[in-house]
Amino acid sequence: MPYKVTPWYRRKRGTQVKTDYACQHTRSVVKHRTERKSSCKSVSQVQAQATEAMAEPAYTIPEFRQRTTEGTEEYQRVATNVSKGLSVIQEEIHRMRMVTKAQVDSLAIQREVKERMTKRTDWLDEIPKMPDFVLALRPHTVWEKTPIKLFCTVQGNPRPVVKWYKGGVPVDPLSAPGKYKIENKYGVHSLIISRCVVSDTAEYSAVATNPHGTATSMATVTVKRPAGGGELCHLGLVPHLTEIHPSKLEISLLDRFSISFGQEGGAISLMCTMVVVPDLPNVPPIAQWYRDDKLLKPSQLVEMFVGGGVARLTLPHLAKDDEGLYTLRIFTKDGTAEHSAYLFVSDAAPSAPGAPGAPMSVKAYDVNADYVLVAWKPPNTVNEAAITGYFVDRCEAGGDTWVQCNDAPVKVCKYPVHGLSVGHSYHFRVRAVNSAGISRPSRKSDKVTALDAAENERLQGKEEVIKIEGKYDIVIKDDDLEGYVTIPGEPTDLHASEVFKSYVVLSWKPPSPRGRAPLWYVIEKCIAGTGAWQRINTAVKLHSPRYPVFDLQDGHKYQFRVYSVNMYGSSEASAPSGPVQKVDEDGAEVPIGVPSAPGQVVATRNTKSSVFVQWEAPKVPKNLIGYYIDGRVVGAKEWFPCNHKPFRHNRFVVHGLTPGESYVFRVQAVNIFGLSDESQESSPIAVEPALGKGVEYATPSAPFGITMLSSDGSSITLAWKSPKHCGGSKVSAYYIDRRDADGLVWKEVNLEAVTERVCTVDNLTEGNFYEFKVQAANMAGVGVPSVPSAPMKCEAWNMEEPGPAYDLSFSEVRSHSLVILWKAPFYTGASAVTGYFVDMAKKGSSEFTTLNEEAVSHRYLQVSGLEEGETYVFRVRAVNTKGVGKASQVSEPVCARALPGTKEIEAGVDEETGDIFLSLEACEICEESKFVWSKNYKPIGDCPRVSVTSKGRTSRLTFTNPDKDDLGKYSVVVTDTDGVSASHTLTEDALNTMLELSHAIRHPVVPLKHGLNYEILEKGHVRFWLQAVKLSPSVSYRFIVNDKEVTSGEGQKISHDVATGVIQMTVDLFTRANEGTYTVQIHDGKAKTQSSLVLVGDVFKAALKEAEFQRKEHIRKQGPHFSEYLYFTIADDCTVMLACKVANVQKDTAFRWYKEEDEIVPETPPNVMSGACALPIPLFSRKDQGVYKAVLSDNRGKDTSTFDISGQAFDDIINAIAQIAGASASELVLQCTPEGIRLQCYMSYYTEEMKTVWKHKESKIASSEKMRIGGTAEMAWMQICDPTDKEKGNYSIEISDGVKTHTRTFDLSGQAYTDAYEEYLRLKAAAFAEKNRGRVVGGLPDVVTIMEEKSLSLTCTVWGEPTPEVTWFKNEQEVASNEHTKVTFDGGKFASLVINKVTPDDSGKYSINVRNKYGGEFVEITVSVYRHGEQIPEPKLGQAKTPTATPAATPAATPVPKSPAPPSKTPTPTPSKSQTPAPSMKSPTPASTPSSTPVPKSPTPSQRSPTPASSRGAKSPTPTRSIKSPTPPRK
């Protein structure tokens, strides 16, 4: 560390300081480097002397002793001539003495420096010492809205107390919460001003005080506003308010306060009711109150409240200072809601009849160590006597005893108060005097502290550094020399700063040098030109460079001079001042100091209860303060005041007037000398009436969680948690009380506010137990105290492990994760803290789980794996080399749930500037909120690599020159919210991507959505186009084809659309000449780009072919044409539909279908006017393969469409059918037949071309004699012929549609197989019987009509094995063979009934019964006989009209039998399509006789069947076994 060495020397000044090196011993002082200014001697002279004195490191032989022989001879020659060389010898002796002393001083300084560099003495710490600024304040110049930090370092024993002042007024952090922050860390005192505004420009001072004295350091802060941000000056009645604050609340003001009237000493509330949506009890609206354009803050005189749908301002102790225009401003979602109204405060009852009203606006200026200038505004006098003067009273802060400062009333509204005590704080008040008495006192002024404003001039000074041997720095400052100055210098610049009839204020500059001893002044006066000086301040010591002189005679001019005096003596007198005479500020003789009267007054009607009054300003304003307006009812004599506080503008609205009355008004101007003459009265005006309401803030709730962080045996360091409810404004201060654990009396720990939630309580007794409580304060005041802490023992901590961490907080709380942060322990133990463990438990549980296996070195931890909605608590344990220390206090419970509307940090690139940034939009924010950015959870602060900007809810962190050093995890916390925070990890890949984008923005190109491309339009036109992301109206471009620019003209058209960003060129006729390279060049503002398309070779040929095709298509579409060519669809019933769509058709347009050039005529003619035609192909199969063609034609032209159903197209159709059929397939149904067991699957349509597979036990079944596979249009079947036990098992059918396989199964085993097999055997036997039973094969008609006398022959063929018996019946009576009726049966095959010469009696119902042992058949024939000449009778109902019996060539007429048509297939029961039969284990059981129910046969005819098929479609019913054929009774 560099040290400064102050050499021993004293400054010579006139005759006051005598320098005698003989009576002083040499000494040097080594001090730390400071920043004080030197005011004693020129630093350049000091540096020259010190450098010269220290240039030689050791004592050397004087120069005269090192003379040569020649020099000695010369010296002897000179010595012999004494009379001539005496002067030369004296000069040489003096030079020798000076050189010797310089060498001795140099050796002493070097020795002192070396000793202090090796060992620092502590004896100075034990010696009482007045405050001394080691590091003084420095002036600053900053921009508006930036923070500033003033800091200084002060020494003294005992340790000084530092207080901060702005322009002589103490800085109170509570007066503007969040504005000021005062800190004291490690001896460095600092004042932090956040977001400076222009009004913060002032002189700031730090005053250090201890029992041995006071030291002051001052610095000027200048706040500048950027160009274009000039200050706004609003002189109207509505105040200029602050920037609009964002809010999510929708607020509507309802009942509003109106014009209000109060009286001094009373109280009043201004209130607005409102509707808040959403109305959240913990989130009240943000309300601000203003009086005359000045923001009000909560205090003892102003109370604010907002909540419960009410905003209220309460003034509990009204004074005329409170009169003015009040404005309520509520921040809403859409901006602000505002309301303003005037409050009038009238004078209280006078202390004596006719006494004046109280003065107002008392303020103190020009504060010094024992002097202050008090100013105020005069009251209005309407009917009272004129004011003759004022008394000024003072009272020390904290007391209630008022002392009158002036013996005689002062006539102006300013008064210099002197005789104050240095370092004491005072309040002032003023009382007005007239001939009737003294008024009530005014409201007391704000507190001011008497300080020596000139002290800083001594403490601040320039410093100079002198190098010793290139290693040590000697810092010399003017203040270092003050300690060696005894008698001070004389004051300078003596003049009169205030000149009034009552007094004159003298001002001067303090002496330089002045010394460190306490300084006071002596003042003398004389009548100008006489020289007869007379001392003025004989009774008191004057410490300030200000002094008021009261006893000057009128008409005389005076001169003054001042002496500086300290304990060592008095200085020379200052230069006399110029002549001073008691006059007013403008130099005119007193009392002509008031303004002239205002000009013309004009009153106009405003509302039913008020009048608008305007007037002209005075011609001679003379530092005008404002105006008083008086009114009078027309016809009355007495005036009444309209306002009770000077109004600044020359227009005013007078309220509270009586309806229907007429009034006149007058105006008076006001300045410090009093009231002007009244103006002329206004013209009378009639008026009418009006009404009023208000808001308040609450104090914070109690802090909690007081815990001990460390103890050294005489002090305890505490920490606590913030109040749960802040009362509507930010908590800005804390106050701590303590008491002995066994006592009852609480003692204040801190008088000055503590802004942090950590405090060290000193002056404790070791071994005692103490309790503590904490109170929080906000702009509404100090809240309730906390619950007393648990007793804490004051004993020195000597454990080797660290103490507890504290101030646990959370960030980035999400549904499953959060980040916990904490501060390092105050007590570190035997070694530094090396890491931390974090424990977690669910709320209400005492079982903590350690989250990190190894200690983390940083003071944060990302916690993941949380349960959403669950509440957790945490604690932290610090670790050092000796072990794990005490656990911190358990954190507040935190719920794992993100705030509604939470957003994460977004990384992006500014589209305008190309800057890379991180941005967060907060889901909630308040007026005091700030965005605090961190990198790796360390606050970034002022860093040249990044810049932070905030606007509304959004904050952006912009990187200056981003590179790899900027990689890391960035987080941001929004203060004064419910935990709004987020983080983002900037990775190298993401940074590289954004850097590329940034480069693209900073070197812009026109971004393209699509590069140059082409498309073929109808008519064969070719369109070349590209699309930009965005185009401006000023875009320019050009098309270049084969290195030649082309423009719009014949055959091509070039255009663009700004809205879509499309640039295009259309070529009407595209030919081989258009082959080549196409390029578009675009220039849009600063951005440009180009895109090319190479259209050559195969690509060009394809484009040309398509263009020619489109031209032909265009020609085709001029007549009837197909808009959609033939395609197929499948209906729900699996009918294949060939469909197409047509266009541009007429009624006479013909449509024809063809297959293989053969025309197809559908049942329903196509309707071309419907726009669609279709050809159904039912029961589609392989036979339907072929080329189908549709032809559309009329007189305008012809168009053809073909569709080839073969190959893949055929397979696609079959698959489409299979998809529908497979989806409709029923479960497998068991059906027994005489040939075997059949499994059937019913579906909407089946054809053998479908991909159908039958499986037995997962093995594919091939069609064979044993296993027959087939189907019909309605079903697929598989038959097991002559089944055996081998055929048992699981059977399935798989229908594949090319995409999906539809499977149906049946388990043919167990009882199912047994039942089926038995049924098969039964049916097999029944079939055999059916095959061999007796039956009529053919030859018989149903009806016979024959003429009388003809012969009738009924002949038929019968069959049966064995040969059946044949019996004929007539009307159910057996027919016997005779001559008339002959019955024959030849060869067991042909049976005949011949009736010779029929008669009408032969008419009737004939029947034949053919039977054998297996059964038989009964066939009926109806015979009708008619006579000759009769009309042939019509056949009866149910009888055929034919055949008619015709006489045969033979005598017997034999009718022609019907030709039997054998069925093509064995009849098979077919279920309805709408109903699928349920699976059956057994076949339907036939009737008791085989002949009653026909038995279906296999579709495959049996080779063994010798019997031809029946010749009849419907067989005659065969009687059941239980009923015999009717047999006529035998005769």
Radius of gyration: 62 Å
Summing up helix and strand content along with how strands pair, one would put the structural category as mainly beta
Overall mean pLDDT stands at 80
Q: Which residue ranges are poorly predicted, with pLDDT under 50 across at least 5 consecutive positions?
A: 1-65, 229-246, 585-591, 689-696, 1437-1531
Keywords, please?
1531 residues, mainly beta, five-stranded mixed sheet, 10 helices, 40% strand, elongated, disordered N terminus, disordered C terminus
How are the secondary structure elements laid out?
Elements lengths: L2 E4 L22 E4 L10 H12 L14 H12 L1 H37 L4 H4 L2 E7 L4 E4 L4 E10 L3 E6 L2 E2 L9 E6 L2 E6 L8 E9 L2 E12 L25 E4 L6 E4 L4 E10 L9 E5 L2 E2 L7 E5 L2 E6 L8 E9 L2 E12 L13 E6 L5 E7 L9 E10 L6 E2 L9 E5 L6 E10 L2 E2 L9 E2 L5 H5 L3 E6 L3 E6 H5 L9 E8 L4 E6 L10 E8 L6 E2 L10 E4 L8 E9 L2 E2 L30 E5 L5 E5 L10 E8 L6 E2 L9 E4 L7 E10 L2 E2 L9 E2 L17 E8 L4 E6 L11 E8 L6 E2 L9 E4 L7 E10 L2 E5 L6 E2 L12 E6 L5 E7 L11 E8 L6 E2 L9 E5 L6 E10 L2 E5 L6 E2 L10 E4 L6 E6 L9 E5 L2 E2 L6 E6 L2 E6 L8 E7 L6 E6 L1 H15 L5 E9 L5 E7 L7 E6 L2 E3 ...
Parallel strand pairs: 4-11, 13-20, 94-101, 95-102
Antiparallel strand pairs: 1-2, 3-5, 5-9, 6-7, 6-10, 8-9, 10-11, 12-14, 14-18, 15-16, 15-19, 17-18, 19-20, 21-22, 22-25, 23-24, 23-26, 26-27, 26-28, 29-30, 31-32, 32-35, 33-34, 33-36, 36-37, 38-39, 39-42, 40-41, 40-43, 43-44, 43-45, 46-47, 47-50, 48-49, 48-51, 51-52, 51-53, 54-55, 55-58, 56-57, ...
